[in-house]
From TrEMBL:
<feature type="signal peptide">
    <location>
        <begin position="1"/>
        <end position="21"/>
    </location>
</feature>
<keyword id="KW-0732">Signal</keyword>
<dbReference type="Pfam" id="PF01625">
    <property type="entry name" value="PMSR"/>
</dbReference>
<keyword id="KW-0560">Oxidoreductase</keyword>
<feature type="domain" description="Peptide methionine sulphoxide reductase MsrA">
    <location>
        <begin position="44"/>
        <end position="195"/>
    </location>
</feature>
<comment type="similarity">
    <text>Belongs to the MsrA Met sulfoxide reductase family.</text>
</comment>
<dbReference type="GO" id="GO:0008113">
    <property type="term" value="F:peptide-methionine (S)-S-oxide reductase activity"/>
</dbReference>
<protein>
    <recommendedName>
        <fullName>Peptide methionine sulfoxide reductase MsrA</fullName>
        <ecNumber>1.8.4.11</ecNumber>
    </recommendedName>
</protein>
<dbReference type="GO" id="GO:0033744">
    <property type="term" value="F:L-methionine:thioredoxin-disulfide S-oxidoreductase activity"/>
</dbReference>
<dbReference type="InterPro" id="IPR036509">
    <property type="entry name" value="Met_Sox_Rdtase_MsrA_sf"/>
</dbReference>
<feature type="active site">
    <location>
        <position position="50"/>
    </location>
</feature>
<comment type="function">
    <text>Has an important function as a repair enzyme for proteins that have been inactivated by oxidation. Catalyzes the reversible oxidation-reduction of methionine sulfoxide in proteins to methionine.</text>
</comment>
<dbReference type="InterPro" id="IPR002569">
    <property type="entry name" value="Met_Sox_Rdtase_MsrA_dom"/>
</dbReference>
């Protein structure tokens, strides 16, 4: 487990049966520009704080066929938690989201990202976690994805959905490195861990309430996703 999360967990007292919400939700409008593709599968990599919660949300989203925690933005030699936690490897904790565009569009994936996954106005931090490894970033796998993501950020900014400027960066994905096995499916495996209960489970609950048509009650875990592919 992450050391800083151990320290945070030690300071959070959760009364029996009480789930706390770590962050305020901001609802953003749907994207004006979205995909025009008939492809059966696409991948985008999203960074928005600790990957436990990001992965947890997308594993509960219909049309997502795989959500894997990992590292993006640095090189292979430093693509491990011990190195990334130092904050100077260039990597961001991120999640590789593979989805079926005939079921869920990139625009919907991004609407959830900006609404319930994280706060895109926080620079190099999310909640209690700080450092460049917790930055807000979208790593795209096509020119169309980059165009949609950049247009959406401009749209949200113009709509003043947030009181502060969005700091999310958009860049082409060079490489994604899956995280260590113990980081995978963490929110599902450890729902009573105080950090998960306080910061991550509310995100999944917000997905179910705000995007009920896109919510999948039973998460698609990493092992299950591999078996189905």
């Amino acid at each position: 487990m992450k050391l800083h999360h151990l320290l945070i967990a030690a300071s959070i007292m959760l009364p029996p049966g009480l789930a706390l919400a770590g962050e305020t939700v901001t609802i953003v409008p749907p994207p004006a520009l979205d995909q025009k593709t008939s492809a059966k599968s696409q991948t985008v990599v999203l960074a928005g704080g600790c990957f436990w919660g990001v992965q947890g949300v997308y594993q509960h989203m219909k049309g997502v066929t795989s959500a894997v925690s990992g590292y993006s933005g640095g090189n292979k030699q430093t693509a491990n938690y011990d190195a990334v936690t130092g904050g100077d490897t260039g990597h961001a904790e991120s999640v590789e989201v593979t989805f079926d565009p005939t079921v869920v569009s990139l625009g919907k994936i991004l609407q959830v990202y900006f609404s319930v996954v994280h706060n895109p106005t926080e620079l190099n931090r999310q909640g209690p976690d700080s450092g460049t490894q917790y930055r807000s970033a979208i790593f795209t796998t096509s020119a169309e994805q980059a165009e949609i993501a950049k247009a959406y950020i401009a749209q949200i900014g113009k709509a003043k959905a947030y009181s502060k400027p969005i700091v999310t960066t958009v860049s082409s994905l060079e490489k994604f490195y899956p995280a260590e096995a113990y980081h995978q499916d963490y929110a599902t495996i450890h729902p009573s861990q105080p950090y998960i209960a306080y910061y991550d489970l509310p995100k999944i609950e917000n997905l179910s309430k705000l995007f009920p048509k896109d919510y999948r009650a039973k998460p698609l875990l990493v092992g299950q996703a591999k078996a189905s592919n």
